[in-house]
Amino acid sequence: MLQFIIRRLLTAIVTIWVISIMSFIIIQLPPGDFLTSYVANLAQMGTTVTSDQVEIMRETYGLDQPFYVQYLKWMSGVIRGDFGRSLEWQQPVADLIWDRMGYSVLVGLSSILFVWSIAIPIGVFSATHKYSFMDYVSTFLGFLGLAIPDFLLALVLMWIAFSSFGQDVGGLFSPEFQDAPWSIDKFLNLISHLWIPMIVVGTAGTAGLIRTMRANMLDEVNQPYVETARAKGLSERRLIWKYPVRVALNPFVSTVGYALPSLIGGVIIVSVVLNLPTIGPLLLRSLLTQDMFLAGAIVLLLSSLTIIGTLLSDILLAILDPRIRLE
Amino acid sequence: METKGMSRRRFLQTMASGAAAAVAVSVSPWAAVAAQDMTYNEAPMLADLVASGDLPKVTDRIPVNPRVVTPLDEVGQYGGTLRRAFKGISDRWGPTKLNEEMAIEWLIPDTETVDLVANYISGWTQNDDATEFTFTLRDGIKWSDGHPFTTDDVKFWYDEYYMGELQAQEVTLTLGAPMVIEIVDNLTWKSTFPKPNPLLPLAIAKLTLGIQAGPTMAAPKHYLSQYIPHLTTDQSLIDDAMKKTGVETWQLLHGDGSIIPEGPILAWYKNPERPVINAWHPVNDPSEDPWLATRNPYYHAVDPEGNQLPYIDGWTHAWFDDNNVFDLWVAQGLIDAQIRHTNTANFTFYKENEEAGDYTVKLWRNASTNAFFPNISHKDPVLRALFDDARFREALSVAINRQEVNDLIYNGLYNPRQASPITGSPNFDPEFAAKWAEFDTARANQLLDEIGLTARGADGFRLRPDGSPLVITILFQSGFASIADEVTLVEKYWEDIGLNINQELVERSLYQERVDAGDVDIGVWTADRNIIVMADPSRYTGQQSDGPWAPLYGAWWSKQPRASEEPPADHPIREIWRLWEAAQSEPDEAKRNELFTQMLNVHKEHPYMIGTVGESPQIFIVKNNVGNIQANHVWDDTLRSPGGIAPVTWYFKS
What we know:
Distance between the termini of chain B: 49 Å
Strand order of the largest sheet of chain B: 18-22-17-21-19-20
Largest sheet of chain A: 2 strands, antiparallel
Shape of chain A: globular
Oligomer: heterodimer
Number of strands of chain A: 2
Structural class of chain B: alpha+beta
Low-confidence stretches of chain B: 1-35, 171-175
Mean pLDDT of chain A: 81
Structural class of chain A: mainly alpha
Number of strands of chain B: 26
Largest sheet of chain B: 6 strands, mixed
Largest interface: A-B, 59 and 64 residues
Radius of gyration of chain A: 24 Å
Strand order of the largest sheet of chain A: 1-2
Helix content of chain A: over 70%
Mean pLDDT of chain B: 87
Number of helices of chain B: 23
Shape of chain B: globular
Strand content of chain A: under 5%
Distance between the termini of chain A: 10 Å
Low-confidence stretches of chain A: none
């Protein structure tokens, strides 16, 4: 087991390194660089920039250097825990992302909890009551959730919150709590705002998980061991939850690794629409302005999360399913 | 020496009269009003600090001759926090324009006038040929930390930021040769130029001189010199700051060596500790949400009753990413006074919620006209020749049914017009505004035939003179409200006269990339900055590549960092540049105006920018309890809007 974890850790490091190179290349692929968009922005505000000035800036930021030099400079900092400096914000990247990372994890985890607490019972119910009326209803609702674009759902929910409840919309806090120190009131305020992103981010995932759970359960409920257990007189509830559900959970656990980064990076548009102080809008903005150190750091973090998540799910899986350990 | 504008100078008449306004100069006696026999009052929050001994008395904080700002409607009351919203640091313009402090500022006291007024200086004089300007600081003016603001700070700015290693100024603005500064005493300095520079006051008001992070032409020496190695005694301060902000060189604390110095120590909006003379100074970092600012107890202006300004205690800017969120905030009454980011397309929505949100929708006007820009510096010689042919452009222009565009797309809220100075501008010319703006398909067809585009292909569209299909692509981006609908309509009009037109909608930065490279047939943008055109005629000189009527030529002339090409020796664009350069250095006001009009007339003769509809409304959301804000006025970057309408006099009615 230990050897298994160590081997996985080593490949993880190599993977992260490759991803960092790839993401750095991709960020630089679009034409121009940070200065192009910066200069365009200034021109719109009535400030004209001459070529000499741009050349000076390009040198100052090292943007005139070849790609690999820029990468090596950045990477040597990252190894020492310095993620570089945002060109747009003129601040260390680390100062910008950690707060937002916290809220991203908060929204992400609450959505995962929301998704699981809804999808697993419904999936089990659908499977055990296959082709019943409620099976169709839940399947229908699930597909509806999958089909509605999440940003649209976000807009609609915001509108309902605004027009029917008069709740202030966008963000995770009311203005009066935004800068306040943590307190019970602030926490309650957070909860009152968290439900919208939780539902919006969760709905699409819920539908998928209901289907997966249902299919897995259908595979399991006809297995001989279920028959055996039933023949031995186990109560139906105990039987279902103790045996087939546990087995059917396998795919959930093996995909938990993707859940984390996709909830953080994959809901950028929703975060933008809902004005969440999370990492998504920052990533979008940094990509648009080609603020490559900020974007690079975020992509690196997200990919590290994926890899750590995958590692965790491998370990979890090994614990959950003894058969896997043999490999 | 001619004493000019010693105080307020009525710069021009705008707006309501609608007539082409004369540039009227009047010297009003307000400097005398700022007399010694005034008694001064202060905000309650400051009075408390004075009472507890934490702050000097108000008379010791403000200059002996403070600037007197007359509120629009009435003397206000102290207190309150102005709630607004912005999109983060790249959108700092909304917050910073509330706070800009130029030596000379626009003042828009009512809906009919725009003045130039002395701000942190008590006045300025200039010699007859406009090569020497004398500025005098207000006596006793102080930085927000209470340190005196003297010509030492001007010299420091000049030595370190204008001429020195941290040079960041747009020297081009001062006609290619740098300004020379001579300090006379601790309040007075002289700025001299090798050539006449009569537009200097405009340049200052428009904030193209000096550190954009403000104030112009000065920087707090006592604070900033600590971060310059050859002036400091404590190197560790610099090291700590570099470590904290993550910069690699000390210079980067101030700026990146060019354009706008926005270093984390120098830029006041990034460094709450940096002393300012602004009415409000930030108390936290703009990356925090919300961004907060509080009043500067040493602010140098009072109202006519001697109440120290500003009335409002501070502001907050909440951060939003998506405009729908901003619109909902407006409807909920969470925005106190804001014009930036409002969307004309949502006019109905704002109006519907006026009562619920307890605000009023005020309609200002943009100093711009939507326009199509045929690229006369096109890389394809055939298209270049066509676009540079006045007959072709006239055909394009008269083929457009502007009234229909206005009615169908903009609910009739815009004005059908040619791209030209807007109504109320000193350069407004009804003939120019109407030039080629009459819808006449027959005339358009006739012109195209005249050029020789008579042969048609199998698809019925006209062929190029060389016999191959003539295909023209309209390149645009979606940043302007309803622009895609307008492009589609114009595409139809042009197809009606036998031109094969494509449209290409691209992302904003790709648009910029394409026009910078001159890789565009016809671009779409707004012909803006059309109110005080002389302060920024870059639309007319072809410098602005986003309105790409001559992107390569414009870049060549203004030496910009993008693709460029020298125009032919006899090209009319050279006449435009010659006249503008002459106007720029003509000290005589009448002659200058004449030269400038001639320059505009080159455009008027055969417009390069094909305007459609303009003077569009710009929605200003103002809560009903906020006073002293104009019901309507011109919104334009040149005017530093809304800075020009004195946000220091806005107040909350109790």
